[in-house]
Structures are given as structure tokens and as C-alpha cells.
Design a protein that fits this description.
Chain B: Keywords: Ligase. Chain B: It comes from Catenulispora pinistramenti. The complex is a heterodimer. By secondary structure, chain A is mainly alpha-helical. Chain A is built from five helices and no strands. In chain A, helix 1 crosses helix 5 and helix 2 crosses helix 5. The longest helix of chain A has 16 residues. The chains are: A mainly alpha, B alpha/beta. Chains A and B meet through helix 3 and helix 4 of A and helix 8 of B.
């Protein structure tokens, strides 16, 4: 059930705003780039556990509220694409 | 040529050195607090289970468990039996575990049957199972602990430490004194307890000294600071440089008067990160230099000698042709005599460095081989490169480290990069895998045909 909900949210976003998704991705890349003094284009697509810990803190500082994702959501956050997806589902990022 | 004679230590050392203390003294907090009476009970239960499975004094067992109460109790139980325990990092792939078991031939393997806990969990709830290994052999040495270190070619190195070696390291922490947590204090450990810093510096020293070992719920900045805030006792953070970066990035940390200092093992952080951390938290930030072979070697727990460090009491160091050597009576390697790693009472660290004659201060200037540190975990790039180059579809490979591990590969005409990546995923643990992949037509070579590893040349080949 969780999966179908996730798909719906993903589809809704795709249908709605391609630009918004691109912006959310840009934000994630910018937050990841602050770890290890990288340029956003140097950030690989895969997200390791150190980067995930870093990213969660950056998200909380950026949006000023706790990022209380459950284990299942965190376990999915292994690529920049899936991070954008989870952030969208939890109402972080972009204009929404 | 045997490197020396090991004298077995009575298994009672576990009770005397680690488990002794008031029944109601809380010694571990992995979620729920565990007092000494509770820990002794759990260790006795695991001892019974391991004995029932057939483990005996002089026997051998491998623990393939994530950080957990189960890891701690099985380890202490194996030692209490007088058996040798080999530690296998739970992040290793099935392929790597299989290779390690073939190499170490433990009689039993303790694995997780069920484990709760997901991404970023600092510890897991584990239901373990004991599996007999039909080809297993009893221990041929008196080592209590065996850990594997990746080797650049051929089989990985097995590093053995006796109970006396471990007790000597615990004593070394005690002798360092100032900056090391004392009895009644807390250690919030962010360092993996499967590796020497978290294992001896956190778990074993903590049990010995009566300093409570606390693991945060998650490895996030907020959870780490919450773990510190959870108790009034003077608290030391133990971790690796990444954790300094993570905590230094917290713009407005809560006031934590109980936090007295942080100690990390591994490479130094950049000066601006060091300064940002000290400025945010107003506490000492200390650095330790250690190796799996010997544990803690040299320290600068107050940042007074930065970037230099001072050998710990009882440690003698020298530089030999630009490489740091440490006096060590016996070779720590099991079943391997490699004069490039240990000879004539000196451990060759493979770290470039120097020892200042007057003061004895030591400068560590990086590896002389292909080992890099990823979040405190050691990765041998040549091991990854050899594995990659041996995969079907790969004609040649070079693995280098810049801001992350990167692979340059030449593929056979029919091969796909996806298949090659999947092949590597089966064989090496996630933290060892390249983060960036570059498929090139040919790998640059020197005039004498050696592969070039210089990244500016390699990126030109893309």
C-alpha cells in the first residue's frame, strides 16, 4: 500500500511540475555538495550512509523542522533520485 | 620462522578486567540501560549456548554481527570459554564473508538470524544463531581476537591479538590519563565496535574503567547530541573525523555542560573544521593514531601538538627511511611472516612520517600504500582494483581516490557497465565500491607500461 501511495505522489509530481522536480533535485545536490567541499556536479548519484547523515542535518537546518523519516523511508534514500522522492512525500523541498 | 611464543591468558581475565564491578552499575546503553549484573547474566547465557554448540577452550568462532548487545555478549562469552573470536564486519558481502571464513576456518560462525534496525541505526536488535562450520579448525595460536585487514594482493592479512595484548592496550588508555574518560563518566561512541577504536577505546576500556558506553539511537547530528544530553555525567564523544564535520555543521547546538571533549581516530580534519567545532562546543578536540595490529599508539587529546602526536606510554616509535615503525615484540600476523610488515621486533606501519629527536613528537604524513579511509573504515584501493579487473567483461581497471573512490575501466566489446557494477556489488562491501565510474577506451600507461594513477592524466583519458 505504501508503495502505491509513493507511486501516486511521484506521478502527480511528474505530471504537475517537471521544473519543480528539477529544482528539488538541485537543492538536494547543493546540500550534498556542502559535504567534502564538492561542486554539485561532483556529487555522485549514489548516496552513502555518511552523506545521508549529513543530508538529514542539512534538511533540518534548511527547513527548520525535524526530519523524522522512519527506517523504511531512510533505507530508500540511497540515490539522489530516491532522496528527492522521499523528501517530496514528506512535504520537504520545492514549493510544496 | 615463528615470530615469538604466545603465552595463553587464563579466561578469567574477562571477569577480572572487564566484567567486575557493582551489580547495579549501568555499563552499557544500547537503547535500554544494562547494568553489570544484567551483562554478566547475558554473557553467561551466551556462554552456555556456545558451549552447548560445541565451542571449547582453544576453539575458534567468527562473529558476523552488527553492533548490538548480541555482538558484545557473544564476544565476551567466547573469551570466557577461552576460544578465539574473529570479527567480520557486518557490512561485508556474502562473497567476502565466505572468503574470510575459508581463510580463518572458524569452527563456528555466529550470525544474525533476525535483525531490526535500518539505515543510520548505530546499533541493532539482533536474534543470533550459531552455525557450525564443517571445515573449521581449533585455534592454532593463543590469540583471543582476530581481525582481517584487506591486503593489496593475495589473501587478506589476519591480525591476531592475545588477551595480554588487549589488557596492555586497556592499561595504555589508563596510563594516558588526562583526556581519557574515567570511571563514573560516559562515553558516547560513534566508532564501530567491530573495529579497534570503538572496540577497545570504547567498549573494553569503558567496561574496565566503569565508564558507561552509550550508543546514540541514530547516527545523525541530532541523535548524537540527544545521547550526550541524556545524562548528567561528564561525557566524551568517541568517533572518526566525519563525526567532527557533522557536529561542526550544527549551527546552534544545545548547551551541553556535561560534554567535556571529543576524541577521534584517523586522519586530521581540516583546520577550519577543527576551529569551527571548538568554537561551537567550547571543548577539547583530541586526535588519536592507532592500528588494528596494536590499538592506540599515539595521541594529542587536547589539540596541543596538532598536527603532531605523542606516543602513548610504553610505545616506542622510530622513522625508518621515512616510514613509521613501532616496537612490537611479536608479529601480530596470523599464519604469515611478511618482513615488509614486521621484522626484528618492529611493526612497519606503511604510514609515512617522522619522529622529532628531542621531543619524541610524531608527524604522520599519510599512507605509503594504496589504503584510504572512508568514514574511518580502511579500504585498500588495490584490492578493489584487483577484484574489478578480475570480473568478466573487464579488460583493465584503475581505482583511485580523489573526493571519493573512482573507477576507470576498459570493457570488452560485448560487456555492459551495469553487469560489471553488479558483479562488483556481489564481491565488495558498499563502502569499498567506486562512487564514480568512467568507461575509457584505454588506460594511460607510462613508457615502461605501468598503469598511471595520476588523476589529471586519467581524467584526460575520459
Amino acid at each position: 500500500m505504501g508503495n502505491s501511495e509513493a507511486r501516486e505522489v511521484g506521478e502527480a509530481r511528474e505530471a504537475g511540475e517537471v521544473g519543480e522536480a528539477g529544482q528539488a533535485r538541485g537543492e538536494v545536490l547543493a546540500m550534498l555538495a556542502t559535504y567534502g567541499e564538492r561542486r554539485p556536479e561532483e556529487v555522485p548519484e549514489s548516496v552513502d550512509s555518511l552523506e545521508l547523515a549529513w543530508l538529514i542535518h542539512q534538511i533540518e537546518q534548511r527547513y527548520g523542522r525535524p526530519f523524522d523519516a522512519d527506517d523504511e523511508a531512510l533505507a530508500r534514500m540511497t540515490t539522489v533520485g530516491s532522496v528527492v522522492e522521499v523528501l517530496g512525500e514528506l512535504g520537504f523541498g520545492g514549493a510544496g | 620462522m615463528a615470530a615469538g611464543i604466545d603465552i595463553p591468558t587464563d579466561p578469567e581475565w574477562v571477569d577480572e578486567v572487564l566484567l567486575a564491578g557493582p551489580d547495579n552499575q549501568v555499563c552499557l546503553v544500547l537503547g535500554e540501560p544494562v547494568d553489570r549484573a544484567g551483562l554478566r547474566r547475558m554473557v553467561a547465557a551466551r556462554q552456555q549456548a556456545l558451549t552447548a554448540a560445541g565451542l571449547r577452550a582453544g576453539g575458534s568462532v567468527a562473529l558476523c554481527l552488527p553492533p548490538s548487545t548480541a555482538f558484545i555478549t557473544n564476544l565476551l562469552a567466547a573469551w570466557r570459554i577461552g576460544a578465539r573470536a574473529a570479527l567480520l564486519d557486518h557490512r561485508l558481502t556474502a562473497f567476502e564473508v565466505e572468503q574470510a571464513i575459508a581463510r580463518l576456518a572458524p569452527q563456528y560462525v555466529v550470525r544474525a538470524e533476525h535483525t531490526s534496525g535500518g539505515a543510520l541505526r548505530a546499533f541493532h536488535e539482533v536474534q543470533e544463531k550459531i552455525v557450525a562450520n564443517p571445515g573449521g579448525q581449533p585455534s592454532e595460536t593463543s590469540h583471543a581476537l582476530v581481525q582481517l585487514s584487506s591486503g593489496s594482493t593475495g589473501p587478506s592479512k589476519a591480525i591476531g591479538r592475545t588477551a595480554s595484548d588487549l589488557i596492555a592496550e586497556i592499561d595504555r588508555y589508563t596510563a594516558i590519563g588526562e583526556g581519557v574518560p574515567r570511571g563514573g563518566e560516559r562515553i558516547v561512541s560513534l566508532a564501530s565496535m567491530v573495529h579497534v577504536l570503538g572496540l577497545v577505546g570504547g567498549l573494553l576500556y569503558g567496561l574496565h574503567a566503569g565508564a558507561r558506553l552509550v550508543l546514540p539511537g541514530r547516527m545523525t547530528a541530532e541523535a548524537i547530541l540527544a545521547a550526550v544530553a541524556a545524562g548528567p555525567e561528564p561525557t566524551t564523544l568517541l568517533g572518526v573525523p566525519f563525526h567532527i564535520e557533522l557536529l561542526a555543521a550544527v549551527a546552534e547546538p544545545p548547551r551541553l555542560p556535561q560534554l567535556t571533549g571529543m576524541t577521534t581516530g584517523g586522519e586530521l580534519v581540516r583546520a577550519q573544521v577543527h576551529d569551527a567545532f571548538v568554537d561551537r562546543y567550547g571543548i577539547r578536540l583530541g586526535n588519536m593514531y592507532g592500528m588494528t595490529e596494536l590499538g592506540v599508539i599515539a595521541t594529542d587529546l587536547f589539540g596541543a601538538h596538532r598536527p603532531a602526536i605523542l606516543p602513548a606510554p610504553g610505545i616506542q616509535m622510530r622513522d625508518d627511511d621515512g616510514e613509521l615503525h613501532i616496537a612490537m615484540e611479536n608479529s601480530p600476523y596470523v599464519g604469515l611472516v611478511d618482513p615488509a610488515r614486521w621484522s626484528d621486533g618492529w611493526l612497519h606501519t606503511k604510514d609515512a612520517g617522522s619522529v622529532e629527536p628531542g621531543t619524541g613528537l610524531v608527524r604522520v604524513r599519510g599512507r605509503r600504500d594504496s589504503q584510504v579511509s572512508i568514514g574511518g573504515l580502511k579500504v585498500d584501493l588495490s584490492e578493489v582494483e584487483h577484484t574489478l579487473a578480475g570480473l568478466p567483461g573487464v579488460e583493465g581497471a584503475v581505482v583511485v581516490y580523489g573526493k571519493a573512490i573512482e573507477a576507470y575501466v576498459v570493457l570488452t566489446p560485448a560487456a555492459s557497465l551495469d553487469d560489471v557494477q553488479a558483479g562488483l556489488t556481489e564481491r565488495v562491501a558498499p563502502y569499498k565500491r567506486p562512487r564514480a565510474w568512467h568507461v575509457v577506451e584505454r588506460l594511460p600507461r607510462t613508457a615502461t607500461g605501468k598503469l598511471v594513477r595520476d588523476q589529471s592524466v586519467l581524467s584526460g583519458a575520459r
